[in-house]
């Protein structure tokens, strides 16, 4: 019972703090729109360059991911984000993300080629992809909250998930499902608005929700990483 109380207290604290940080930095809600525009332009340009274009497009995707992680880091440092942070973020964690992508790309390419030749190979591939998604779920937080990199970073994510999967995935799944439901409701409610206004409202809401979710994940990670259930109960009693 004590561990349940401590965990719920962590959730409550993280939920409230995430809301404060997200609304206090509401401008970050427009970042996903910026990334979408960048990727759209990159797709049009690079599609004509064959394999080189594909590599450049993946690099652009990684740069956008780097920028997003950097913005969350800035928010958590209790500083208002600005346009310079948005631009600087494209290179902040780019090469770490590229390194991780490269580490995963080679074995996955081999696995896909092998499974393509066996019956129901696509099901095995799907299982592998889901497994990787689960055990590497904490990689984004580790990138800007730890000093590990490369294979050590992947191993750190695996260890974190093994030790904290109930506490980690429960709020993530609930908040994500709630976001999907709210998004569908928002689409229905805004149907009466002119298309440009509807697009603006929906895009802003999605961006703000994405920021909220990433901030929440980071706060949860900070509380769970490097601790165990006994130490969380102790911290709960001390803080309460």
Description:
With 240 residues, this protein is mainly alpha-helical. The protein has ten helices and no strands. The chain has helices at 2-24, 31-46, 50-76, 83-92, 94-115, 121-135, 139-145, 150-189, 195-224, 229-239. The longest helix has 40 residues, at 150-189. The protein is globular and about 60 Å long. The two termini are 15 Å apart. The model has no long low-confidence stretch (mean pLDDT 86).
Short précis:
Helix content is 84%, strand content 0%. It has helices spanning 2-24, 31-46, 50-76, 83-92, 94-115, 121-135, 139-145, 150-189, 195-224, 229-239.
Question: What descriptive keywords fit this protein?
Answer:
0% strand, mainly alpha, 240 residues, 10 helices
Report on the biggest sheet.
Answer: none
List low-confidence stretches.
none
Order of helices and strands: HHHHHHHHHH
* β-strand number: 0
Count of alpha and pi helical runs: 10
Beta-strand content bin: under 5%
What is the strand and helix layout of this fold?
Elements: H1 2-24, H2 31-46, H3 50-76, H4 83-92, H5 94-115, H6 121-135, H7 139-145, H8 150-189, H9 195-224, H10 229-239
Helix pairs in contact: 1-9, 1-10, 2-3, 3-4, 3-5, 3-9, 5-6, 8-9
């Amino acid at each position: 019972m004590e561990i349940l109380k401590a965990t719920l207290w962590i959730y409550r604290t993280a939920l409230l703090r995430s809301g404060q940080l997200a609304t206090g930095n509401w401008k970050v809600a427009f970042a996903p729109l910026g990334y979408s525009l960048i990727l759209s332009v990159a797709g049009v340009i690079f599609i004509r360059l064959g394999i080189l274009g594909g590599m450049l497009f993946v690099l652009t995707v990684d740069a956008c991911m780097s920028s997003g992680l950097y913005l969350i880091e800035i928010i958590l440092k209790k500083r208002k984000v600005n346009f310079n942070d948005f631009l600087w973020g494209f290179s902040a964690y780019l090469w770490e993300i590229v390194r991780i992508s490269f580490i995963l790309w080679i074995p996955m390419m081999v696995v896909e080629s092998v499974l393509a030749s066996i019956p129901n190979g696509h099901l095995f591939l799907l299982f592998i992809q889901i497994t990787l998604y689960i055990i590497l779920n904490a990689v984004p937080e580790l990138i800007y909250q730890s000093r590990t990199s490369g294979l050590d970073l992947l191993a750190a994510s695996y260890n974190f998930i093994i030790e904290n999967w109930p506490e980690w995935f429960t709020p993530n799944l609930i908040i994500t499902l709630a976001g999907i439901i709210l998004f569908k409701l928002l689409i229905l409610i805004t149907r009466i608005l002119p298309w440009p206004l509807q697009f603006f409202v929906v895009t802003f809401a999605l961006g703000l929700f994405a920021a909220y979710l990433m901030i929440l994940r980071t706060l949860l990670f900070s509380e769970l990483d490097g601790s165990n259930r006994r130490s969380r109960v102790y911290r709960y009693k001390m803080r309460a």
